[in-house]
DNA sequence: TTAATTTGTTAGTCATAGCTAACTTTTTTA
DNA sequence: TAAAAAAGTTAGCTATGACTAACAAATTAA
């Protein structure tokens, strides 16, 4: 067990790269993640990414061979999970106690996740009575760094007649989140797939006696679990 | 009214300098504040301060002439007050809801005060029902940026027989704050000055049936209002 | 009032982390 | 399999904000 006393020595940037790499590797379940892909995800140049990856390799948070794919070490993973824990706990706090809406929390949580204080985040967790899910439905890693991925499929993978429950939404885009709540969808909504249109893959869905047509792109960002 | 749409464009460093200058100018009530004094307060080199002051002058947050004393513009003051508001509200939150002690809050609040979100801080204020004082006793500026200084004198300015109430403590040093609570002093404690010793200016005080001798340096950091 | 001390300024260096442009390696596809 | 495209790398530049060393101005003291 390499418990090399992780002293919170990372810069904001280093943390951002580790978290992004984790999200591509684990949450998006990518088979391989490359330098340019990470660059695009973080909206920086490939040169910047290359540079940072070198540094993170030297610090033993990242593994990769020249011209090869990227991976995280145990230590790198652990840092990323702690960042995700912080992000999701703060999002939960903002929604539950400070009247933030779904689409408002992300930017502020991006800042708050870099605050360095073990006590702060563990006390926040306790204060909220150890919530299981964040406002977008995702699971919150616990204080021991145990991370698991919510079992979910995209709405777009369903067929005519399927019935599902909304368990999470992609929190990457503010306009998407606004759209979701505007049409009246929320976590736990029961959604029935009325028809998947051949022509453009758009989907007619029904929920709370509302019937809506949503695009394939929309449905790709809505995560559900099948009920029927 | 130069309301030039203050877009939170400042770096963490710029904010630190503005806040420090405000604290020297207004809170310590200094008649003049110089470059080296500011450098010492921030624990950076005079060269760094000189450099930053140039930038802040260009941005019209600071006024000074070459080799002259430093001052803040209205805009600079307003930014500093907002930082102090954020710092004190976070300190209050940490103590009241997250089980932080007096001496633990400062470092975390130093980080939290740089989070940029108007909504975050105003909602935090509302959540706590608009507290008037922070855990060290200081007044919290309101959402309109109205700032006032708590009427207070130092314990060291009192004479034999004076009785006072502890209204605030200097929050600059963790070891000092620990010391204060260890001997049993807290906000609102009633303190009686038994004797100011000529030899070394040490002071014998009594509070809650405890008698203690404190140094002049200690008493300089304890703020009181006179009762008798 | 001159000399010493303190205070303020400038020049030049370093690390972080971004960028573009040019290049190399790997992968794809014709 | 050879050419084209994509992916990855390197070199060299930028800005921020630290630093030291050297110097100039202002203040204090002899």
Task: Write up this protein.
The structure is a homodimer. With about 230 residues, chain A is an alpha+beta fold. In chain A, about 40% of the residues lie in helices and about 15% in strands. The first copy, chain A, has two domains: about 150 residues, Winged helix-like DNA-binding domain superfamily/Winged helix DNA-binding domain (Arc Repressor Mutant, subunit A, Orthogonal Bundle); about 70 residues, SH3 type barrels, CATH 2.30.30. Chain A contains eight helices and eight strands; from the N terminus they run H-H-H-E-E-H-H-H-E-E-H-E-E-E-H-E. In chain A, the strands form two sheets. In chain A, strands 3-8-4-5-6-7 form a six-stranded antiparallel beta sheet. In chain A, strand 6 and strand 7 form a beta hairpin. In chain A, helix 2 packs across helix 3. Chain A is globular, with a radius of gyration of 19 Å. The termini of chain A are far apart. The N terminus of chain A is likely disordered. At the A-B interface, helix 5 and helix 6 of A face helix 5 and helix 6 of B. Chain A binds a DNA duplex (30 and 30 nucleotides) through helix 2 and helix 3.
């Amino acid at each position: 067990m390499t418990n090399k006393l992780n002293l919170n020595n990372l810069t904001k940037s280093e943390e951002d790269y580790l978290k992004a790499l984790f999200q591509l590797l684990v949450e998006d379940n990518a088979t391989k993640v490359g330098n340019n892909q990470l660059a695009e995800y973080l909206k920086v140049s490939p040169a910047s990414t290359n540079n940072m990856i070198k540094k993170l390799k030297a610090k033993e948070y990242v593994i990769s061979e020249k011209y090869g794919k990227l991976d995280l070490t145990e230590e790198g993973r652990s840092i990323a999970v702690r960042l995700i824990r912080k992000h999701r706990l703060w999002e939960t706090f903002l929604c539950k106690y400070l009247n933030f809406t779904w689409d408002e929390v992300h930017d502020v949580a991006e800042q708050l996740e870099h605050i360095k204080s073990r006590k702060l985040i563990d006390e926040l967790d306790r204060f909220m009575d150890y919530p299981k899910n964040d406002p977008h439905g995702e699971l919150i890693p616990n204080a021991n760094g145990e991370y698991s991925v919510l079992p979910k499929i995209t709405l777009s993978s369903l067929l005519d007649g399927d019935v599902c429950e909304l368990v999470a939404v992609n929190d990457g885009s503010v306009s998407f989140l606004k759209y979701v709540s505007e049409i009246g969808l929320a976590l736990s909504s029961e959604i029935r797939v009325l028809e998947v249109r051949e022509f453009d893959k758009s989907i007619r869905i029904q929920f709370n006696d509302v019937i809506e047509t949503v695009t394939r792109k929309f449905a790709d960002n809505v995560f559900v679990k099948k009920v029927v």
